[in-house]
């Protein structure tokens, strides 16, 4: 074991009592370290982070790009070109390989930098005591000697020795493989050989707190932690490719076989025809260049990276680029309520105390406001309730409204302030002796405190808060203006008050108190003493809807996405808020869906959109059943009990303000906790996927047109099988076709993208309909390009520049430009606005095409000749057939879809 001064001790931390550990790390268990000392230790020990494997160098990335099969094919083409004395072709292809490697390397490094930048937004937080104050800091800034506090939902930020705990349990499966939570306490463990999983007075970095609270002193950070020691033995795992990327890689491989198969046919045909070997090889090179889709993998990676940056700009962080594509297929959203659909600024609006009604003014976490009731009634003594509000909670609220802790508890602290009670002073006056922390399984929290009794001694007081139904079941009496009364006399009045608050869409918490006989010791089993309570009252809390939530729900439903609200609130409260949001019909409680079989619940799901009083198991089950029915499910959540459902969902969406556990489980984090941001992310995901589909459609159409052109020219001996020279093909692929691709990349999402149903995830990019369009559009470009070669056969020459080949080159170029303009969207018209940006970009390849035909040095480079006005008009007319046919075909498909609807 290492001490903070760099020395070492052979005594393990877990065998020493807490006082010895505090002394060894030179800290104060109550005030923690000073800020200056923490900075000094941070400089000495370094950041509290697991060192990652060094990133690959630029040269390593470049070599990996060069080894790509597409680039290997082009290198082979360049070498063969030089071998048969086609120096200009060899140099140009070689230059294009270098450009391709450069762009691919730049894109990979840029994508990695983008993901790294996004990862920095996800730095976990830790609650630490410094200079005697509780602060929230980046976990990376923790140092040995820091005193940290932990509660359910936290990720333990460093290895630490427990100083104080209350019913603490941690999940250490990531470290020890033990699936069940481990009970923790500060007791000394004598045996220095105790295994890691049995060190019950220690908590370890990256394990999860599943229950209870604790304070602990940090004894190891960074690579000195148990996780760090494991990490030092591991090598980086190569990230797997997404289904879309694997699909495109497989498609690229198939196209490679098609390309080389076509090359083989052309070479064999030429040799059988008696052509020179060099000419036949040159022709094969032209074919290979035209059929190799070199840019496809890079474009998809660029689009996903572009999409991740767009999402980040909209406050949505995706952990992996591959999750961008999944967003576009989302067909069901299971949303938590608090902080997602609502503002997460909980405010107590109404109060039922000692049998009387009160209203509370003020909003958010401002501590200003009044508690009002009917005129003429005496002002009650709120002491019992104020004690419960402040002591049976852990949140802190500054006078500026800054909150650390649960938002609901913060609202209670604010209410106590309006009653004249200061939470911090009250907690110092009545320290917590024991507690039962809140757990979704039993839905209440209880704390035990010693206070001065009437006779001068001390008495033990128990304070409880929780769901009205569970608290009421543990009460034997109720506070009234005339004192305590049996619960049965007032049960119906309390139930009616609870219903009234719930039907107004308020979250209702019940508060109860129990006084023990003087001299009663703190219970060894606090849970067993949550009984014989006296109900103090009910508090109605409102969390206002976010202004964007209702509109976001409307947009999602228009997009064919089923939106459901799944919350721990009472079903009546949930139904009231669901109605305000405009969710679909039907509400059910957790108990009701638990009584249904899987088949029964599946049958009723289309008519159920609000779920209240659900357990973590319910959330998990709902996500699973929806997936079994074919839905792509996005699930939002912020609490530890949401983590399992987030992991089950196709897109688990954690809230930026939520627990570390949910952030670990989720695939996306909403930095602003806003449901509207999720709907925006789905829209961006759809747009990104549509761009990828549009690019593939354009790329395949170009590829098929050139493959058909060379095959037909070779098989029917048109211009000795040379419809276009290799330089022409290279010019088309790298100086013309690149600009329609830019247009596709920059094209804004069509206005109606969220009026369409979600895409079917089982429908691949290379489905029957898509492949049909590729052949149809590619065949059209092929036919129009072939026409000049057929109408001027007497002018053809495979060795000298001539008008028919030049015209074929121009038609292919203009067809690519005009085709790219209309293929940027499908099935929407590519001529619909906004179109100005597309026209600006496409004017560049248009000018390049004219220059390649009419400017002398470019003529000599590309192998063209000047065309007459009539020949230019013929080329223009033929190339305009491409966008005309494509637009008519899309119009026909749109009309069919409208007719079916």
From TrEMBL:
Pfam families: Cation_ATPase (PF13246), Cation_ATPase_C (PF00689), Cation_ATPase_N (PF00690), E1-E2_ATPase (PF00122), Hydrolase_3 (PF08282). Belongs to the cation transport ATPase (P-type) (TC 3.A.3) family. Type IIA subfamily. Residues 12-86 form the Cation-transporting P-type ATPase N-terminal domain. Keywords: ATP-binding, Membrane, Nucleotide-binding, Translocase, Transmembrane, Transmembrane helix. Gene3D superfamilies: Calcium-transporting ATPase, cytoplasmic domain N, Calcium-transporting ATPase, cytoplasmic transduction domain A, Calcium-transporting ATPase, transmembrane domain, HAD superfamily/HAD-like. It comes from the Bacteria. This is Cation-transporting P-type ATPase. It is found in: Cell membrane. The chain crosses the membrane at residues 72-103, 248-272, 278-300, 695-716, 728-749, 770-791, 803-823, 835-858, 870-888. It is a multi-pass membrane protein. It comes from Microbacterium jejuense. It catalyses: ATP + H2O = ADP + phosphate + H(+).
